[in-house]
Structure formats: C-alpha cells, structure tokens
Amino acid sequence: MTNDLIYRGAVELAGLLRSREVSATEVLEAHLDQIDKLNPLINAVVTLDEEGARAAAAEADRKIVAGEPVGPLHGLPISFKDTANTAGMRTTFGHPHFRDHVPEENDLHVQRILDAGAIRVGKTNVPEFAAGSHTFNRVFGATRNPYDPGKSAGGSSGGAAAALAAGFQPIADGSDMGGSLRNPASFCNVVGLRPTPGMVPNTDGNNVFFPLGVAGPMGRTAADAALLFEVMTGASPDDPHSVFPTGPERRDAPATELSPADFADLRIAFAPSLGGRIPVSREVLDVIEPQAAALAALGAHVELDCPDLDGSEQVFRVLRAASFDSMWGEQLAGEPDAFNHFLAGNIREGGLLSGRDVVRAEEGMTRLIRKAAGFFERYDLVIAPASQVVPFDVDLEYPTEIEGQRLQNYLDWMRAPYLFTPLGLPALSVPAGFTPAGLPVGLQMVGARGSDARLLRLASAFEKISSCSSVRPQGAAVL
Q1: Do residues 371 and 312 touch, judged by C-beta distance below 8 A?
Q2: What is the DSSP letter of 228?
Q3: Where in the sequence numbering do the catalytic residues fall?
Q4: Residue at 361 is within a domain
Q5: How do residues 25-80 score in pLDDT, each as one tens digit?
Q6: What is the DSSP string of 158-172?
Q7: How many domains in the chain?
Q8: 239 in a structural domain
Q9: How far apart are CA 436 and CA 399, in angstroms?
Q10: 203 near 238, Cβ under 8 Å?
C-alpha cells in the first residue's frame, strides 16, 4: 500500500482522504518512508519536520472524522521551496548567511496552501538565491535527478521537481523568473506552470512592480498542478496587479480535461528554435518534433512560427541584473566572497546599469506584451522546447556548449524558457518523452495572457498523447 500511495495523483489522493478510504496519517507515513529511503541520495528535501507533520496529519484526520469542513488540499503532504518563507521553519534561500534563518510569517502562497489543508513536511532545495537552473548551493549541496542520480534535477525549483518525481510529495510549489518552474519540470518529467503575472499575487518580495518573477504550481500531472494552482490564485490587496478574479473556469480545471481529439482545429505555432534564436540539443528535438507531428495528425493546424521575441533577451537580462543589484549589490560590495562567482558577476552587471537602461527595458517589455497579444489573435497555442538541453552531469556548473555552439555564460542555456518571460504569458512544461538514455524531455506550452486554466487543460489532453507522465524513475528506484 505504501508504494501505491506515493505515486497516487494529488486529485485522487484528495478524494480518497475526503472519503476516508485512507487517512492523512497513512498518506504522510508513506511519503516519509520514501523520503527516508531515497532523499539521502536525491537531496531534494533539505529541512524536515516529521514531528510537526505527524501532528498536523493527526489533526487532519480528526477533522475528517468529526465531519468538519476541509479544504481542497486536505491531508496532502508538501515540502515548500526553500526561497518561500515558512513561519517557524528554517528558510535558507540556499545561502550560507541564512543557514539558520527562521521566518516569523508565511509567504502568502504558503499560507493559502496550508489553509487549504496541506500538511507541511519540510523545504525543498534551491540554487543560491534561486539564481540559475541547476540546483546546488554551499549549504546543502546538489539535488540529483531521480531518473539518473548522476544528472541535474534542473532549477531553481529543482528540489521541488525531484521531490515530485521521487514520490516524496504529490504537489509542490515553485517560482519562475527565467524558467525555474519549467526547466526542472522538463528535467524531472513533471508539470510546472509559470502563471500569468498577477494570477498568483506577488506579495513576498520588496517590489510588486517587478514582473519577471512569479510563484506557481508543480505536479506529476496537469490536473494535479491545476488543483494547487486554484489554491494559489486570487487577488490580494498587497499586490495591485493581482486583479484576475477567481471563477468557475479555474475551479473546474482539474475535472474538465480535454481529450486528444480536442486539439483538432487548434492553431498551433511550433517554435523548435524560437525562430532561429537559440541552439537546441538534437536529443531534445528528437522528442518534441514527433509530438508536434502527432498534434498535426489529430487535426491541429501546426505551423512553424514564433511570437516576436526581438529585444526579449535585453529586456530580461537588464531587469534581472538590476533587481539583483538592488537586492544584493551593497552586500556584495562589503563581502566580495558572499556569492558564487556567476551570481556575483550578474549582480555587478546590474550595478553598471542606469535608470535609463531600466526604463528602456520596461518600454521594450511593453512592446513585447502588445505584440504577443496580436500573435495570439492568430494562434491558440505555442509549443517549443522547455529546455535547450537534456539533464546534464550534476557536477557541472552549467552547460558550456550546445550542438557545437559555445555558450558565453550561465544564462545562455536557459533561453528557451526565459525569452518568453518578458511577454507576460502563462507557460508550462509538460512531459513529452525520453531520450534513448532514459532522460526526460519536456514540451513548453505557451498561451495567451490570462489563459492559464485552458493551458493546463491542454496539457492534460497532451498527457494522453505522450503517455509518459506515468513513467516512474528507475535510476533511484533500483537503489
């Protein structure tokens, strides 16, 4: 029963808990056993509170027995990303300065998840300050990929994605500036949604006007990610941009799945290299090109096309570097060794920018958003690689070459997701297939602004075509 429970979907588990076919304690113990068995190898969960989780599970069971109202996530175990503040639980941001930091309050999305009945188990690993798409830091070391422990789990929500893939939890929270939900989802054969900015309120940082970073859900399936997404969404007075209303469309998202036949007549833009802007590994293309053909065979109108991304590179890098300098520039000046070398370089780049540079980047983003709106009058969906590479060796800081093209820095291999970031669109990675070596590859799906729920339903329909979401890791399971 234990092994069966850890890979039940979140939607199914939530139903079993409400019907009292299983207890929250049983579900928790099954996941704790799996963490105990595999986390020493995978290193996805870096802080663990078994005693607190058991007490919360017992209380969850009491509520069910007493017939008290329960939330949609009642009894589901979750460890939160280690950049999300969790009251009374260590939150390190992957940085030595915060090794023993214990916040007094929860971030808003954390509180919403707990209010919905989830059981807090611990924290999942991140890169230093979540900067980068490979999860390693000087506090906890590297997170390994459950499909091949010698490979990266991606990042920055790499601990979250690996925890899902390894059966440590059925849902996970993450965040995404340049692909931090999409890249690890691709590497670990799970779903990660970067929501439209404003869907999940930005109340956890110092700047509600910064549009690049958003929190979002992860799950082993689109339906599970949709279940968590509904809990995370909703306006907040602390974020003036969180204006999207909650409504029946999002509430129905886990249940009203499309079928593969519903792809017929959809207008799909296929952008395997984002219009020739990025190099992509042949191993990635060998997985996603047949999937594009499969959608066309179902009757979708699939064309080689891409939204206008001209200037997106500059917009993303300027705004990202400026925010890094604002957050950490003074600390770096006083403590030159406080940051890893590539993050320190990125902070210094921000310090060289002028106010004019930042405003021009914002103007460039405005143009991109307006152009994207016109593009989605012609298309229903964009499909593209979620990552330019397959999972690489865990001991490598970052890839330095793709198909013979030399990369200049630690951001170059992440462009497949981050070039879409300044357009303000919802984007997700959904499992698409595996390389001959058994490494996962995700398909990036991008929709019109505000179409997050529809995008999740399309991903759910795609899962019936690709049929790889149910493929469990063998690299960790055999150990």
Answers
A1: no
A2: H
A3: 81, 156, 180
A4: yes
A5: 999 999 999 999 999 999 999 999 999 999 999 999 999 999 999 999 999 999 99
A6: HHHHHHHHTTS-SEE
A7: 1
A8: yes
A9: 20
A10: yes
Residue 475 lies in a domain: no
- Rounded CA gap, 45 and 81, in Å? 9
Query: Of 144, 133, 12, 19, which Cα lies nearest the Cα of 470?
Result: 12
Phi, psi dihedrals of residue 39, rounded to the nearest 5°: -65, -30
The Cα–Cα gap between 199 and 233 comes to 5
Residue 419 lies in a domain: yes
102's tokens: 């214990």
Domain with residue 254: its CATH number is 3.90.1300.10
The residue-averaged pLDDT of 214-222 equals 97
Given a cut of 50, whether residue 296 has pLDDT beyond it is: yes
Cβ-in-10-Å burial (0-12, 13-18, 19+) of 255 comes to: exposed
pTM here? 0.96
Provide the residue range defining the domain that includes 219.
Answer: 2-466
CA geometry: angle at 49 spanning 43 and 53, to 5°? 120
* Cβ atoms of 344 and 332 closer than 8 Å: yes
Burial 167-192 (b: 16+ CB within 10 A, else e): bbbbbbbbbbbbbbbbbbbbbbbbbb
Between the alpha carbon of residue 444 and those of residues 84, 148, 152, 365, 432, the distances in Å are 25, 22, 19, 21, 9
What helix, strand, coil percent values describe the chain, rounded to 5? 40, 15, 45
Q: pLDDT tens for residues 466-476? A: 888 889 997 55
